[in-house]
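so the lab meeting is tmrw and i was supposed to have these ready like two days ago... anyway. pasting both below. for each one the top line is the aa sequence and the line under it is the structure tokens. i havent really looked at them closely yet so no promises
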Amino acid sequence: MENIVVFITAPDEEMAARIAKALVGETLAACVNIVRGVRSIYSWQGNIEDEAEVLLIAKTKKSLFEKLSRRVKDLHSYQTPEIIALPITAGVPEYIDWLNDVTGR
């Protein structure tokens, strides 16, 4: 079973909390951390943007990524939200077991 960490940016903590609660409540993620104070500099529609954002870090299974990303898009205000995943290559067995139990083995 492959586990992943999904990074999602949001414009503010209110939206981040709404997304996080939905993902955990619907068992699409076992846990979502919200990190305030992220400064994002990126290219968008030909302009260099410099914005304050909030970062969500969701722990889940790779098999849930498509459902998770659809749900984030439903809740998100951005036209093209950042939703990217990285594999979890190692973790303490108790945490990985918990993640898998919460998200339904």
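ok protien two:
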Amino acid sequence: MQLTAYTDYSLRVLMYLAVRENSISTIAEMASAYNISRNHLMKIVHKLGQQGLVETVRGRGGGLRLGRHPKRVKLGEVVRQMEPHFNVVECFEPSTNHCPITPACGLSRVLIEARDAFLAVLDRYTLADLIAEREALTRLLQLR
């Protein structure tokens, strides 16, 4: 299973904001730190804001901060909100499934179990777990 870049970048944005704690950050800072397009990050931050995971601060000196405490942000929740689907194989989407062995195939059952296990593991972790090495992350992201 592979996460989209959109979800990967979403998790990175949340980590950046969590490392910065209650400080205000900008999209430009994050784009520079991760070498990611500002326009792409704007779309991601907008969706994270809609989900209540990021809070925007308007006005001079405005920017972004984490919308919830890192211990209250479950990774499984973020991944489910950001990924468009979890259709690992063709038969997971009935409207486009053309596989002739679907009625007798055991592969889909195994892959559904694997997908569910993947998400169950993510559900056990929070954003706080991802930033446990805060000092190293601060240094790597070149934060003050």
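from a quick look at the 2nd one: Residues 5-83+127-140 form a domain with the Arc Repressor Mutant, subunit A fold (CATH 1.10.10.10). The helical segments are 5-19, 27-34, 38-50, 75-82, 107-123, 127-130, 134-140. will dig more after coffe
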